[in-house]
Every structure is written in C-alpha cells, then in structure tokens.
C-alpha cells in the first residue's frame, strides 16, 4: 500500500493532543503489512507516515498482537514449485521420519529408515 494513503487514513484517528486513538482493525492490518514489507529503518518508516516512534509503537504492537491471535486470518497461500527437483518415491518426506547424522567431515547424511543407518555404520566400521 502507498504510504501516502496510509498516512491519510491514520491522520483521521489523530486526537487533538496528537495521539492515535481508536484505530480500526482494518487500518491496523494495513499498518502491519506496510511495516513487514518495509526494508529501511524503523525511523524512516515512521517518518514516511509522518508520525513519531511513540505514536506508532503502540499501533504496531496492537497489530502484531491481532495477527498472532489469528484475527487477520492466514492470508493468501502461495505455493512455490522448485523446478528440477523431484522427490524420490523411495524416501519418506515426513518431518519426523528417519535419522540425520553429521559425519566426520561435517557433511549431513540422512537415512529414511533405521535399518539403512545400521547397514551404513556396519560398512563404515
């Protein structure tokens, strides 16, 4: 989202004393999206919106809390396909299956089954 639009939305919640009060959940969601996509420093982010760190800190905190609690939902799922890498049907892809060891030279060796590890250790000794 463009920071100019977000700045205008936030300015509608500005009190006479300069506090951001009663900011809606939708605007908080836009703030957290802009914050997560920001690549510069936090001071630059606040400056781009025209607010101070004190003004924005509580908003970002509230938005993070709502996101942790699942208020905003999961968002869009983006599937990533890696070309040229086909999983072997002989190996299980469960995260809890198999054993992983680090060999003498620092290389990691993964075994899909305990029997394969035992055979390897017998041959290596």
Write up what this structure looks like.
This protein has 125 residues and is mostly helical. It folds into two domains: 3-68, no CATH class; 90-125, no CATH class. 46% of the residues lie in helices and 6% in strands. The protein is built from five helices and two strands; from the N terminus they run H-H-H-H-E-E-H. It has a two-stranded antiparallel ribbon with strand order 1-2. Strand 1 and strand 2 form a beta hairpin. The N and C termini lie far apart (61 Å).
Write the layout of secondary structure elements.
Layout: H1 3-11, H2 25-37, H3 42-49, H4 53-68, E1 99-102, E2 108-111, H5 114-124
Antiparallel strand pairs: 1-2
Helix pairs in contact: 1-2, 2-4
The end-to-end span amounts to 61 Å
Assembly level: single chain
The stretches of 5 or more residues where confidence is low (pLDDT under 50) are none
| Main beta-sheet strand count, sense and barrel state | 2 strands, antiparallel
Elements, N to C (H/E) = HHHHEEH
Into which percent range does the helicity of residues fall? 40-55%
What strand order characterises the main sheet? 1-2
Kindly name the structural category. Answer: mainly alpha
User: What is the general shape?
Assistant: elongated
CA gyration radius, whole angstroms? 25 Å
Helical stretch tally: 5
Number of domains: 2
* Count of strand segments: 2
Mean pLDDT figure: 79
Strand content range: 5-15%
